[in-house]
Amino acid sequence: GINPFNMLIPPLVIQPFIENAIKYGLSGKEQGMLRVKFSESQQYLRVTVEDNGVGREQVKKEQEQSGKEMASTGIRYTEERLRLLIGNDRVKPVNIFDLYSADNQAAGTKVELLIPILT
User: Fold this and answer.
1) DSSP designation for 6
2) Cβ contact 40:1 at 8 Å
3) Are residues 40 and 108 in contact, defined by beta-carbon separation less than 8 angstroms?
4) Cβ-Cβ contacts under 8 Å for 35 (sequence gap 6 or more)
5) Max CA separation in the chain (angstroms)
6) Cβ count within 10 A of residue 89
7) pTM: predicted TM-score of the whole model, two decimal places
8) For residue 60, which phi and psi values (nearest 5 degrees)?
9) How do residues 7-41 score in pLDDT, each as one tens digit?
């Protein structure tokens, strides 16, 4: 029910999350899944990026072992941009959830973005 011709999504808002899912979560997996979902939620476009990757804890461990631990500036900058667009400090524009299987094993990551609907 979303008309893509009436929605304006700021450039490079979704890209860092898709890139991280592919680069860190899904690389090396034989059967990777990446799902990007768009829905309307009040005055926001809700974007959900979900993968079945190795999970953030595993990525952090691998980075620590390799000595190449990296801070994700793309995510921080995106969150700051969305906060400015929303103009309300009580709304959290980026939410990241670690996903787990029934036996409590890492099963991926889910990111929810709130982008104000600009027409």
Assistant:
1) S
2) yes
3) no
4) 48, 49, 50, 51
5) 46
6) 7
7) 0.86
8) -60, -45
9) 888 889 999 999 999 988 898 788 999 999 999 98
